[in-house]
Amino acid sequence: MTDYDALTRLLESRHSCRSFAPEPVDGKALQNLSDAFALAPQAGGGNRRLQCRFVTDQTTIRNLAERGQEVFDAFCLSIPSPFVREKTARYGENFFWFGEVPALAVVTCRKVPVFLEQLAGHKAPLIWGGELSAAMSSFSLLLAAETIGLGACCLTGPLLMWCEMEKLLNISKRDSLILLIALGYKKTLL
Ligand SMILES: Cc1cc2nc3c(=O)[nH]c(=O)nc-3n(C[C@H](O)[C@H](O)[C@H](O)COP(=O)(O)O)c2cc1C
C-alpha cells in the first residue's frame, strides 16, 4: 500500500464519534494526540500561541456540559418570541451532549494583540491565524486519534456559552477558547 493509499484510507475512516466506551483514555494516547497537534503548521511558528490541554476529570466534564446546558436553556427561556425560542433551542440540541465523554481536548489561542488590530482592523484575526492554526492542529489530532482507535468529535457549539465555558475551564484572560474535542475509545460492536 502506498503512503497515499494509507492516507486516503485514514481520511475515509475518520468520522465524528459521539458515543464512547466508558474506559478512560490512557496517558500514552493523550501524549500521541498532543504530539500530532503540535506537528501541524502554526502561524507565528512554535507552539506558544496555540495550546491543547486535556481534561479527563469526569466531574469537571459533566459540570461543564450541565452548566452550559443550564445557561443555554435560561437564554432560550428569555427569548420572547416562541418561534425564535424554539428555533434557538433546536439549534442548540447538539451542543451540550458531551457530559459523559472520557476526555476533552481544550484548544485555546492567545488573543490577537492590540497592535495587530490597529494595523489590520477586521482582518487582524486572519493574519494572526489562531483559528486556522487551531483547525490544522485539531485535524492532525483527529487523524492521530483515528490511528489509535479513539473516536473524536469537534465541538464549537458550546462556545455559544463561551463566558461560562472559559470560566469553568480556568482559561487565562490572555487566551480565547477556540474549540473542544470530545475523545474516547470507540464502542466495539459485540
Ligand atoms: C469546527 C467544527 C465544529 C463542530 N461543532 C460541533 C458541535 O458543536 N456539536 C456536534 O455534535 N458536532 C460538531 N461538529 C461535528 C460536525 O457535525 C461533523 O464533523 C460533520 O457533521 C461531518 O461529519 P464527520 O465528522 O463524521 O465527517 C463540529 C465539527 C467541526 C469541524
CATH superfamily: NADH Oxidase
Q: What does the main sheet amount to?
A: 4 strands, antiparallel
SSE arrangement, N to C: HHEHHEHHHEHE
Query: What count of structural domains?
Result: 1
Low-confidence sequence ranges: none
Kindly report the average pLDDT value.
95
CATH fold-level topology? NADH Oxidase
Given this structure, which CATH class is correct? Alpha Beta
Question: Which molecules are bound besides the chains?
Answer: flavin mononucleotide
- Number of β-strand runs: 4
Q: Give the name of the CATH architecture.
A: 3-Layer(aba) Sandwich
Tell me what the structure shows.
The chain starts with a helix and ends in a 5-residue tail after the last strand. The protein contains 8 helices and 4 strands, in the order H-H-E-H-H-E-H-H-H-E-H-E. The model has no long low-confidence stretch (mean pLDDT 95). Helix content is 48%, strand content 16%. It has a single domain, classed as NADH Oxidase, CATH 3.40.109. It has a 4-stranded antiparallel sheet, with helices on both faces. With 190 residues, it is an alpha+beta fold. It has helices spanning 3-13, 27-39, 58-77, 82-91, 114-120, 124-128, 130-147, 162-168; strands spanning 50-55, 103-110, 150-155, 175-185. The structure holds flavin mononucleotide (FMN). The site of flavin mononucleotide (FMN) has 10 residues, from strand 3.
